[in-house]
Amino acid sequence: MRKDFEPKPWFFPLPVLIVATYDENGNADAMNAAWGGLYESDQVELCLSAGHKTTKNILSQKAFTISFATGKYVEACDYVGLESGNNVPNKLEKSGFTTQKSDAVNAPVIQELPMCLECTLIRQTEEGNII
Ligand SMILES: Cc1cc2nc3c(=O)[nH]c(=O)nc-3n(C[C@H](O)[C@H](O)[C@H](O)COP(=O)(O)O)c2cc1C
User: Fold this and answer.
1) Structure confidence by residue, pLDDT tens digits, 18-51
2) Ligand 1 centroid, distance to 70 Cα (angstroms)
3) Of ligand 1's atoms, which has the minimum distance to the CA of residue 82?
4) What are 67's strand-pairing partners?
5) How far is the C-alpha of 29 from the C-alpha of 84, rounded, in Å?
6) Architecture of domain 17-120
């Protein structure tokens, strides 16, 4: 039976995006993002809070990767969405993920997750979203 939920920004299934970055010292960080998706055929958009370590890293390094979470690594994917690199400098290490620098951009690739977009920052929208 269908149910009316009123207007909501719901898309299903919703991928769990893991956004990985380096800070200015080359330390890797990653966070969980639900608010993201396609923008152009070769561009993605992320809606990230300004205070996140990830957001600061993207703005300083102009690069990031987006991996798609898998069920096998649900605990690590959950962890990076609950703890901040602002408070835990070795957050990514504690998550259990391992990384390797992308060949294409100055951002880490999470080795355990099979699919990864290697991205450069094009611009921030007026609302502050990352393109
Ligand atoms: C399921 C889930 C989805 C999330 N989606 C977003 C999001 O789309 N945008 C955002 O700014 N924060 C989102 N968060 C919160 C960040 O992942 C979280 O605050 C994280 O600790 C930030 O890490 P950082 O400070 O190391 O970058 C989400 C968290 C979870 C658990």
Assistant:
1) 999 999 999 999 999 999 999 999 999 999 999 9
2) 17
3) 21
4) 18, 116
5) 9
6) Roll (2.30)
